[in-house]
Amino acid sequence: MADPVVYPIAKYKYKVQVGDKEAGFSEVTGYDASIEPTEYREGNMAALTPLKVAGIRKYGNITLKWGVTGSKELYDWMSKSFDKGVERKTVVITLLDDDNKEIAAWQIIQAWPTKYTGPEFNATSSDVAIESLELAHEGMTRTK
After folding, report:
1. 55: which of 14, 72, 96, 105 lies 20 to 30 Å off by Cα?
2. Given CA atoms 83, 58, 135, 117 in this order, what sign does their dihedral have?
3. Local confidence band at 1 (pLDDT 50, 70, 90 cut-offs)
4. Full 3-state SS string of 76-142
């Protein structure tokens, strides 16, 4: 008997936990990881091309976007960084299926706010006002 078809999960249903609090976001982007290749060659090597060895590991910044509400908690996290130094938190992004079952999760390690962007104002638009917070971090793992 053939295995049943497995469909990929849609990306529109997810939850985000920042530190010990769950927060709602309209968009989460930018989490990626790469290893920079470093070329190396000795003068007496038989090969005419250099070796490629693993170099520095890099992680892209993560951007959280949300509609403006009465809460200033994420803005205050960024603002506090200017006065008292950065406060690092663990961020967990969890992908959910249509029945709210957790399908996959990514843990962002030692995240801290590096950029805040306030909403754009336009008197002729009916769009939702959106804030964003960019997070630098020191690594990520897929935990589920």
Report:
1. 105
2. positive
3. low
4. HHHHHHHHHCCCCEEEEEEEECCCCCEEEEEEEEEEEEEEEECCCCCCCCCCCCEEEEEEECCCEEE
- 3-state SS, 29-41, equals ECCCEEEEEEEEC
Question: Distance (Å, rounded) from C-alpha 96 to C-alpha 98?
Answer: 7
If we measure between CA atoms, which residue out of 101, 75, 74, 90 comes closest to residue 14?
A: 101
Residue owning tokens 């497995």: 6
When pLDDT is averaged across residues 25-42 and rounded to a whole number, the result is 92
- Say which amino acid occupies 137: H
Of 2, 3, 106, 98, nearest in space to 60 by CA: 106
Question: pLDDT higher for 82 or 53?
Answer: 53
How many whole angstroms separate alpha carbon 111 and alpha carbon 88?
5
The span from the CA of 77 to the CA of 81, in Å, is 7
**Cβ(103)–Cβ(9) under 8 Å?**
yes
Asked if the model's pLDDT at residue 44 lies above 70, the reply is: yes
